[in-house]
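Bumping my old thread because nobody answered last time. Still need a sequence for this structure:
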C-alpha cells in the first residue's frame, strides 16, 4: 500500500494540501500520515529532571490538537475517515524533520501546502523549493488557494531526458488513480521535428495506454518558460502537473522565475508533483 506524508502547521493554508492528499489517498487506496513538527518550550526555571516530562506533555498536547484538526477537516469535507494516523515530532527544523521522517518510514509521496506571496511559496517556515531540492521522495506542492475538485487528468511536462523511465512512473501513478495523462514538451522550433519523431502519439499510446494526448509546443526565448507552460495548463486544465527535476533545480527554477508583477501564475491554482530525476 502506498504511503503519503501530509504536513500541516494547523494553518488554514495547510488544509489545501491535506484535502488534496485525502483525495489522492481515496483514489489510490493509500495510507495517510498527518505530520506536525513543533518546538518545545522549556522554561528556564524548570528543574532538569522535569524537562523530559515537559516535552512529553507538550508532544501529547500537540498530538491531540492534530487529531482534532484532522477530524474537523474530514467533517468539513463530509468524508468518512479511512486509513490514516497522526504523528508529531519535536524538532527545531521542520524541513529536516519532514525529510528525515519521510525517508526513515519509506513514504511514497510528501504532500505540502504552499502559502505566502511573491517569489517561491513558503511551507511551514521553510521553502517549498528547498524541500523539493533535498527530497529523494516525490513532493506534491498544493497551492494554498486550491479548492477540492475531481481528479480527472494529469499533465506530464517533459524535457525528454530519461523519457522511458519517467513516463513509466507517470503511467503507474495515473493507473493507480484511474485517470489518463497528457504529455507536453517545449522545444526550439528547429528541433520540433526531432521531438515529434520521439513523441509519436500513436507509438507511445500503444506502449503506454494511460497516455491520451501529446502536446509539442514551440519555445519562445522572448517569453518566460513559466508563462508558456501556464498557458498550456490553462488550456488543458489538468488536475495535477508532474515534473522531473535535476538536483540543481535548473528547470524548476525556470518554472518559478515569475516576477511579483506578473498577474498570473499557475502555481496558485494547480497542484504540482515533482519527482527527482533518476529517482535519486
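Sorry it took so long. Here it is:
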Amino acid at each position: 500500500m502506498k504511503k503519503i506524508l501530509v504536513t500541516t502547521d494547523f494553518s488554514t493554508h495547510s488544509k489545501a494540501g491535506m484535502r488534496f492528499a485525502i483525495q489522492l489517498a481515496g483514489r489510490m487506496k493509500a495510507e495517510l500520515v498527518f505530520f506536525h513538527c513543533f518546538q518545545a518550550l522549556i522554561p528556564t526555571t524548570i528543574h532538569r529532571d522535569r524537562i523530559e516530562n515537559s516535552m512529553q506533555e507538550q508532544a501529547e498536547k500537540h498530538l491531540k490538537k492534530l487529531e482534532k484538526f484532522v477530524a474537523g477537516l474530514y467533517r468539513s469535507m463530509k468524508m468518512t475517515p479511512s486509513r490514516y494516523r497522526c504523528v508529531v515530532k519535536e524538532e527545531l527544523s521542520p524541513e529536516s524533520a519532514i525529510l528525515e521522517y519521510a525517508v526513515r518510514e519509506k513514504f511514497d509521496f510528501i504532500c505540502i501546502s504552499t502559502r505566502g506571496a511573491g517569489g517561491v511559496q513558503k511551507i511551514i517556515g521553510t521553502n517549498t523549493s528547498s524541500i523539493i531540492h533535498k527530497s529523494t521522495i516525490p513532493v506534491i506542492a498544493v497551492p494554498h488557494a486550491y479548492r477540492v475538485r475531481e481528479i480527472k487528468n494529469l499533465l506530464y511536462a517533459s524535457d525528454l531526458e530519461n523519457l522511458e523511465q519517467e513516463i513509466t512512473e507517470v503511467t503507474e501513478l495515473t493507473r493507480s488513480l484511474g485517470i489518463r495523462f497528457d504529455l507536453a514538451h517545449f522545444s526550439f522550433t528547429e528541433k520540433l521535428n526531432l521531438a515529434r519523431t520521439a513523441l509519436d502519439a500513436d507509438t507511445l499510446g500503444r506502449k503506454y495506454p494511460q497516455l491520451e494526448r501529446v502536446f509539442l509546443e514551440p519555445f519562445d526565448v522572448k517569453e518566460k518558460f513559466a508563462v508558456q507552460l501556464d498557458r498550456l495548463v490553462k488550456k488543458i486544465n489538468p488536475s495535477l502537473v508532474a515534473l522531473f527535476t535535476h538536483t540543481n533545480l535548473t528547470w524548476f527554477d525556470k518554472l518559478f522565475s515569475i516576477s511579483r508583477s506578473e498577474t498570473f501564475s499557475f502555481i496558485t491554482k494547480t497542484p504540482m508533483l515533482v519527482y527527482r530525476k533518476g529517482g535519486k
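Residues 48-76 form the longest helix (29 residues). Let me know if any region looks off to you.
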